[in-house]
Each structure stands twice: as C-alpha cells, then as structure tokens.
Automatic annotation (TrEMBL):
<protein>
    <submittedName>
        <fullName>Transposase ISHwa4</fullName>
    </submittedName>
</protein>
C-alpha cells in the first residue's frame, strides 16, 4: 500500500491538501484498478477545479516522470 498525496507549501506555511490510498491490484484485477497516475491526476484536477488551490507548480517524485500523461 502507498499514499499518493498533495502537500501545499509557501513562504509562511505548509499543510497536506489531499491524499488517496493506492493498493496494487492482483494480476487478474489489474484492468479495473486505478493506477498511481490516475490517483495523482484525480488529486490535481480536484485541487484545481473544485477547491481552487492557487498552484503555479506541482512537484512529483521522480517515479512519475517516466509517464508522459502527467
């Protein structure tokens, strides 16, 4: 199990914004399971469109960099 999360920080404060729990699917259930990429995109969309977080930049772990969809 892993957590995919968003954390806000500026010059004065830092706090968590959202998180999703990721659990790797078995081989047979893999088509129905959300990936870490799906969860990250869901968080970013939620924060931008529904919450209105004023983010100019998103930082991701380097693991996410190998997928061009983000």
């Amino acid at each position: 199990q892993d957590l995919v999360y968003a954390f806000y920080t500026d010059d004065k404060t830092s706090y968590p914004l959202a998180f999703r729990q990721y659990e790797k699917a078995d081989d047979e259930d893999q088509d129905d399971e959300e990936t870490k990429y799906d969860l990250a995109q869901e968080i970013v969309t939620e924060l931008e469109e529904e919450v209105g977080v004023p983010a100019d930049t998103y930082l991701f772990d380097s693991w996410f960099a190998h997928d061009s969809d983000l």
